[in-house]
Amino acid sequence: MLLAMKEPYVVMKDIHKTYPDGTVALRGVDLEIYPGEILGLLGENGAGKSTLMKILSGFIKPTKGEIYVEGKRVKFSSSRDALARGIAMVHQVFTLVPNMTALENIILGTGKGSEGVLQALTPLDFDFGRRQIEELTSKLGLKIPLDTPVESLSLGERQRIEIIKALSRGTKVLILDEPTTFLTPMEVSELFNFVKRFKEQGGSVVFITHKIKEALEITDRIVVLRKGAVAGQLKTGDATPEKLAELMVGKEVDLEALTHLERMTITGETILKVEELWVNNDMGVPAVKGVSFEVRAGEVFGIAGVEGNGQNELIEAVTGLRKIEKGKVYLNGREVTNRSVIEMYKSGLSHIPGDRERYGLILDFTVMENSIIGRQWEPSFLKGSRIDWEKVRKYTEHLVARFNVVAPRIIAPAKSLSGGNRQKLLVGRELSRESSLIVAVHPTKGLDIASTLYVRELLLEARNAGKAVLLVSADLEEILQLSDRIAVMYEGKLVAQGKTSDFTLEEIGMLMGGVALQKAPKTT
């Protein structure tokens, strides 16, 4: 093995992390990072991947364990300490100043004590900084509009700014945390090309992901974490999707089932109709601009798009969470424009929100209480005018068993559940409603492979039973797999609509990035 012939640049030994609330995130993890390699850190949400790398990059301290860089033991008190040893992390949530240009963001914080290409930079020496950054971007093949305010740039461009910002400080180990989450397929390809070029120049990349396909495509070696411990590690050439899935989940997984879900052809009347909808964002600026579409009984209508192009505002408006400025919404033939959430539920809506902690669950409420939120007025849960908690208890026990929600007790607070189990509780509650329309936003977020398959099967089961499903997902494969028809959203508009079979993956990626096709599919 080539890597065995080199000395590791980083060694992490017996790393433990227990948070003040008692949550154990890491349980004795050993990890080595070699020069000139792309290391895949693979695992389900909550496996401990990000926590481990936040420790390495100085953002948090381990409860126990040792870190060695170039053979010397180190202790990091901050990210600046880690950066001084050549280790930097690019997070999923960017830390850029929106109204400053790309160049200003990259230079921000440099000066005395800085490392890397900007080490001699004074706060006002922008000409020198520009020359150095242009040379670096050219060397690495990353294109960035340096004089454009960050707020005007795509998420892919913002990510490149964060990467260049890190590399301009002399980074030798670059940690990328779920870097493809908000990227179009075209931007993913560009990112992978950069990662390979950085590796060829002797740099090391830790590529954090929960996507098996990505890990197999871009890495040299893969370490799999499960429940805060190393479940296994192997050279990428020796890995298979099945082997990695089993390491991630702890049991054999039928990956074929994820791509071969049964569906029936049964399209009925229009359940949801949206006409020329205009919706503002929190700043009062239009985020949804004249959007129109229909969702019919017995179909899944998927909306694809890079996060931040108006999908959240659209869904909030349709479900009663945000004011509609112009346009109309019809549900089951009745106008429901600007109706309240309760009225929407009573009209036949089920909603799996993308932000479960903000809109889906009340974490201080018990599992039992959360199981009937939005349904507490239904006669099946009442005795006279009061809630019959014995009925609720029986219902919750059935719900927890059916959707495999792992909870200490049904009277335990929802905050005691893991992220994946919170999601299963929410999905179970919403899919158990007697509804005609299911609005599902990132429905498998935080779920392991087996649970992802189960939720997707449930959505198709609802569709096959004649319900309408409006699906928004950051997982393009999920959109393609589940949807009968697809719309692509870009800058607040639906730039194309059509049957799923009318699109290729490449075409969807181009549309998501704002590239108009000569013959974009139309509504069918």
Automatic annotation (TrEMBL):
Q: Which Gene3D superfamilies match?
A: P-loop containing nucleotide triphosphate hydrolases
Molecular function, one GO term: ATP hydrolysis activity
> What InterPro entries does the entry give?
AAA+_ATPase, ABC_carbohydrate_import_ATPase, ABC_transporter-like_ATP-bd, ABC_transporter-like_CS, P-loop_NTPase
Which keywords does the record carry?
ATP-binding, Nucleotide-binding, Repeat, Transport
- Keyword ATP-binding assigned: yes
**Residues covered by the ABC transporter domain:** 10-252, 272-516
| Alphabetical list of Pfam families matching this protein | ABC_tran
In terms of PANTHER family, this protein maps to:
CARBOHYDRATE TRANSPORT ATP-BINDING PROTEIN MG119-RELATED (PTHR43790), GALACTOFURANOSE TRANSPORTER ATP-BINDING PROTEIN YTFR (PTHR43790:SF9)
Q: What is this protein called?
A: ABC transporter domain-containing protein
